[in-house]
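Input set for joint prediction.
Command: fold jointly, output tokens.
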Amino acid sequence: MLVQMKKATLYALKEDRDSILLALQRDGNVMLIPSADEAALPGAENVGNEAEKTNGAIKFITMHAGKSSFLTPRTPVAYNKFLQDTPVAADLAEQVATLEDKIGSLRNEALTMRAQAGALKPWLGLDIPLEKLAATTSTVYFAGYLPELAKDEFLEEIKELTAEAIILEEVPEGRAIVVFAHKSASADVKHFLKAHDFTDVVFPKRVGLAKEIATDLTDAAKMKESLADNLEEEVKKIAHRKEELYLYYDQLVAKQERMALSGVETQKTFFVQGWVRADKTEVVTKAVAEVTSAYDLNFVEPEEGEIPPSVMENGKFSRPYEFVTELYSRPKIGSLDPDFMMAPFHFIFFGMMLSDAGYGLVLTILLYAVLKLFKPRDSAEKLITVILFGGVSTVLWGILFGGWFGLEWRPLLFVPMKEPLKMLALCFGLGALHLVTGMCMKIYLLVKRGQVWAAIFDEVSWLVLFAGLFLMALLPGEIGRDMAIVGAGTIVLTGGREKKNVIAKFFGGLLSLYNISGYVSDLLSYSRLFALGLATGVIAMVINTIAKMLWETGPAGVVIAVFVLVGGHIFNILINVLGSFVHTSRLQYIEFFSKFYEAGGKAFVPLAIRTKYVDVTK
Amino acid sequence: MLTLGTALAFAGAAIAAAFAGVGSAIGVGIAGQAGSGVISEDPDKFGNVLVLQALPGTQGIYGLLIAFIIVLNIGVIDGNIKELSTYQGLSLLFAALPIAIGGLMSGIYQGKVAASAIYLSAKRPEETGKGIILTAMVETYAVLALLISFIMVNGVKL
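tokens >
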């Protein structure tokens, strides 16, 4: 069901603003609407930067000290404590940020030095100190790499130019060489080298032999690295204080959100507008009244053209299925929240696709434990609950079909693998029910909007046609045929009513009868209920067969067989839960929603305490 | 003594498992390459990426499923291999074709959609669900192929 929304307008004194926003945030029932000419409160940017820094610090600590563990329950924090400033944590975040900077630059420097040392490698054999490699009054020198070198030939040729070469190691850049030449031959040598694709090398500005310099650089790099290692040890030492950063981060985010909107201001007062659920107006008024008496708060219906956010409210069973709807899109305001009708079908289809009572039991017990132990929230809680319900449904279908971990045991209904036609009939039957439900929802929507004729022409006519076709196959006599003719006739006569002239109307009507192919393909799509059930069952059988073969080979085989059984069935559960959820949801989106659903609602994001790491208790 | 029919049934089982398996391998491979790229930017997305990468893997399972049922029906598992007539064997071979070809092609294309859905989840993590649904749309045709292969295999009376 979609909840009625009201627009709240609040006038109050600026001096009360912080405490009012705090109260609203704690209450969590108002979604503030930004107006055109307002900015964030002063200081909001700083809070944002600080939050960013803290987040970085948390990430850095996690990187060096490792995650505590997957799915740790959040630490509960009392609301009063949540409001208290934590300067110690601010210092800690600063400290970690500084450490991160220092470690980063040390590692960088070390890296540069190692790269320099690496570049000197081909020159290690050079017995001239690098600072001595310079032009003298009568000689010049060239140092660099030659890509290809026929050593003897090169030495011959260079001698003819009154020059001498020292040939060193070969590296990917080419052969390292140093050439000394008489000044008079300088131009010739240059030309000669260029012809051989010579590239110059630039040495680091250091004193001494290449060998010594490389060693110095490596030593210095090692020292910087060990310094960085020490600092990392320090990070590990303060890692146990991560909890403080968690709290601090959540505090900052809450503060940032509170400061995001200032409202429209005068010298002494301000006003803000926001969306509130119609049934929560009193709670909001009370929250504001507790802070101050100098306020004016009123609630009005949304005006024409204003689109309030879509809030869904459902009973205990359908509520988790809101997640499935949200995954598609929220319902548009003024349309229908499909959850109450979708939930039972999602429940039934999921179980049919998994259809193994053993798997269902494992899933149910496991997810129930997850819900109790880790207390996930929001969409995670909804998703887990949807699959938990699916697990229960799987147990039921498993009992009906007699599937227990891939073994057959006393089916109450029939075994789908042995009677595929019965199973297909069941799938199409449930599918038809699903589609008809969707069409009925459309009829309800149209009638509610006063478009009774449209409902009769576009939806009821089809239902009559289908009912007629169904009766034709089932009952002897004319009734089925007559109904089918009435239905089809209505469709042909009214399907083209939007068209202008009579001929276009007629062909439009005929064309809309062609839509029957769409309904047929929708119906065929439900055969996946069988196919996915088949996949689960047969893969379980494969696992059992392999395990049995191994079991018969002796004691070692028994051990491996146990591994195959446990690992195989876990794999099968995982892959098929994924498949069942995705394909069940698809049947809702493509086959069911396409009949009536109007998507495009806005999300309701109230000003509230949204924490990532801690759990604020009231 | 193996008959030509039995050999043809073997061929059916082999192409069902092999072709559908190749389709899945290529699909999962394409998705995996996209996934590594995304994870290198943000390791926290591993969960989302893994789910999307796993989706094109089902064709291989469907192929194996049909292959297993053929092999089971002709008695390879319990050791008494039946002597099939040539027509029985041919029928089983044809029955394997839908999942073999459907699995091969849909696996590859599902892999491509999965890769783009992985990029989608990198840019807008909150929309991963829609990417998963888009990817699953391709799988419909592998499911249909599996179904018809199964019904045909089941229809060959030995």
